[in-house]
Amino acid sequence: xxxxxxxxxxxxxxxxxxxxxxxxxxxxxxxxxxxxxxxxxxxxxxxxxxxxxxxxxxxxxxxxxxxxxxxxxxxxxxxxxxxxxxx
Length: 87
Description:
Strand content: under 5%
Largest sheet: none
Number of helices: 6
Low-confidence stretches: none
Shape: globular
Distance between the termini: 26 Å
Order of helices and strands: HHHHHH
Helix content: over 70%
Protein name: Arginine transporter
Oligomer: single chain
């Protein structure tokens, strides 16, 4: 349980997502990329997407400048995680 407590918000969300590919190794890798590419507040916001994918769509479709800026950072995180963590 100590490892779960030390996990970051992305890793915790990934592990609890119920997805078939969501294992400790993959989720830890994704968290490492998040630590390199996203601030803490961005990580917490992105973690919500694991539980509620509609929030990602809402953010993507938003007209707010802050959401647009976040989406660019999030997209960079996703692209980097895919390249870094893919088997």
